[in-house]
Amino acid sequence: MHYCNECAKENGWPITLFKSQGLCEECKKAAVCNEMPSSKLPKKGKPETIRCQICGSNDVEHVVQTEVFHYGPKRIKVEVPDYESIKCKNCGESVGFPESVKRAEVLLKEVRANEKTD
Q1: For residues 73 and 6, what is the distance between their CA atoms, to the nearest angstrom?
Q2: Which residues are within 8 A (CB) of 108 and not within 5 positions of it... i.e. 6 or more apart?
Q3: Domain check: are 16 and 65 in the same one?
Q4: pLDDT tens, position by position, for the chain (118 residues)?
Q5: Core vs surface per residue 38-50: b (16+ CB within 10 A) or e
Q6: Which DSSP symbol is given to 88?
Q7: Structural domain of residue 8, as residue ranges?
Q8: Which terminal residue of the chain, N or C, has fewer Cβ atoms less than 10 Å from its own Cβ?
């Protein structure tokens, strides 16, 4: 289901990490909408929560830490400070916030570019 943040607040639905541009299925207005299968939506009137995008659990935590990635066959270490993510306590999956993922991509591209010049 695709629904805008305004409808999420009114109905007690979660604000998700995954978004798409389109029509809200609830109010029919054009908006950047949350993406969530209807079967995973809590009943109306429950408080707003963030749910795991993999298993649907609401037992998640907001994590801010230095995330470490290893790039390429040489396993070059790339550290991304203040990497924000949501970690599911149920299945262990972690999903990075879009801003953190973008910063990680920039750092990895720099490593890739430097590797080509070496």
Answers
A1: 46
A2: 69, 71, 78
A3: no
A4: 788 888 888 877 777 777 888 888 889 999 888 887 766 666 554 345 688 888 888 898 888 999 999 888 888 899 999 998 889 999 999 888 888 899 999 999 998 888 777 6
A5: eebbbeeeeeeeb
A6: E
A7: 2-40
A8: C
DSSP 38: G
Q: How far apart are CA 56 and CA 85, in angstroms?
A: 16
To which residue do tokens 């037992």 refer?
59
The residue type of 98 is: P
Whole-angstrom Cα distance, residue 60 to residue 116?
39
Residue with tokens 């079967």: 39
Q: Is 47 domain-assigned? A: no
Token couple for 48: 């707003």
Q: What is the pTM of this model?
A: 0.54
